[in-house]
Amino acid sequence: MLSVVIPSFNEEAMIPITARTVAGVLAGAGIACELLFVDDGSKDGTWKAIQTAAAENPAVRGLRFSRNFGKEAAIFAGLEAARGQAVAVLDCDLQHPPEKLPEMYRLWQEGYQVVEGVKADRGAESGLHAAAARSFYALISRAMRLDLQDSSDYKLMDRAVVDALTAMPERGVFFRALSYWVGFRRAEVRYAVQPRAAGQSKWSARTLIRYAFANLSAFSSAPMQLVTWLGAFFCVFALVLGVQTLVRLALGHAAEGFTTVILLILISAGLIMLSLGVIGFYIARIYDEIKGRPRSIVAERCGGDGA
Ligand code: UDP
Ligand code: MG
Q1: Measured in angstroms, how far is the CA atom of residue 92 from the centroid of ligand 1?
Q2: Whose CA is nearest to atom 22 of ligand 1?
Q3: What are 82-99's pLDDT values in tens digits?
Q4: What pLDDT does 151 receive?
Q5: Which ligand has its closest atom nearest to the C-alpha of 37?
Q6: Distance CA 116, CA 225 (A)
Q7: Domain made up of 2-220+292-306: CATH architecture
Q8: How high is the pLDDT of residue 37?
Q9: pLDDT tens, position by position, 112-157
């Protein structure tokens, strides 16, 4: 059986369409499936829509979070609840074309354990957004020594991969990168990003920036090493300037140079505070992980046994 995990946040308009489309495509290909909608603390009628879909189709199951925990948490809760031998993850807005699922499923049957959906293009994204996304993927690809540039959350995984992912104790999970990190036999399927079928994107510039920093820090300690390099650079600089100052003192014209002093104090104080900020950011991450709070809290279930 194929489990399809669908994170949904304020998607009341999409749930019935997605449930029908995905179930239709898989039935057409003769693949037994369950659809697992994870309502990520939606404020609209998403949960009602999931319950209705579950009443209409016994293959539909739903989980409802007690509040919004974010897409990554929703994906992982779905992976934990999935019962299939293969598990696919798909956006609720049909930007990941479900028509590709049968192809991914065939590759899985041939023995591939992770079938990646790779973006053939990035769909309709504005210039600034595309540029920001590109630099984020360039950075995280370097940190992980892998090319994540066209990766997405559209994937189909074997049970072994799902078990490896859900066994990870990390709180701050980044599905797209972790599913690379675990390894296994991989294959790719290219797809064209579709326009959103209904509703609107759930990401604002602010949440995207926060998401980028959190995920970069989870895979790289380069910013902290940068602090060390800055310190080394400043030591060399200090040595040169120190020698110059002593020579000027010996030659007897040491009085001027207040501008230099002021600039040096400003620059070094600025850099020290910046560095403390970077280190503080990592300490905050350590604190978040060590608290060991669950990634998400499931408040309600529907469909399957718990109907
Ligand atoms: N989503 C979620 N929790 C959130 C934000 C988004 O579960 O806090 C889901 C959303 O319902 C959708 C998927 O993540 O199924 C992708 O979101 P969206 O389409 O808004 O992002 P975009 O395609 O614009 O990157
Ligand atoms: Mg979308």
Answers
A1: 7
A2: 201
A3: 999 999 999 988 888 999
A4: 76
A5: 1
A6: 32
A7: Alpha-Beta Complex (3.90)
A8: 94
A9: 999 998 888 766 667 777 788 888 888 878 877 777 777 788 999 9
- For 296, the 3-state DSSP assignment is coil
Ligand 1 pocket test: which of 71, 174, 200, 215 has the largest number of ligand atoms within 8 Å of its C-beta? 71
Burial class (CB in 10 A: 0-12, 13-18, 19+), 251: exposed
92 lines ligand 1 (CB under 6 A): yes
Please give the Cα distance from 290 to 287 (Å, whole number): 5
Q: Are 266 and 39 in contact (CB under 8 A)?
A: no
Structural tokens at position 125: 């994204």
Tokens describing residue 53: 């879909």
pTM over 0.85: no
Ligand 1 atom with the smallest distance to the CA of 9 is 11
Q: Cα(9) to centroid of ligand 1, in Å? A: 6
- Asked whether 203 lines ligand 1 (CB < 6 A), one says yes
Q: Enumerate the domain spans of the chain.
A: 2-220+292-306
Q: Which of 9, 17, 76, 153 to mutate to test the pocket of ligand 1 (most atoms within 8 A of CB)?
A: 9
Report the residue among 75, 119, 202 best suited for mutation to probe ligand 1: largest number of ligand atoms under 8 A from its CB.
202
Q: Which residue has the higher pLDDT, 282 or 146?
A: 282
Interatomic CA distance for residues 231 and 229, integer angstroms: 5
Closest CA to 104 of 84, 121, 123: 84
Closest CA to 300 of 48, 89, 11: 48
Type of residue at 155: K
Task: pLDDT band for 165, please (50, 70, 90 cuts).
Answer: very high
pLDDT at 271 over 50: yes
DSSP state of 110: T
**Atom number, ligand 1, closest to the C-alpha of residue 11:** 11
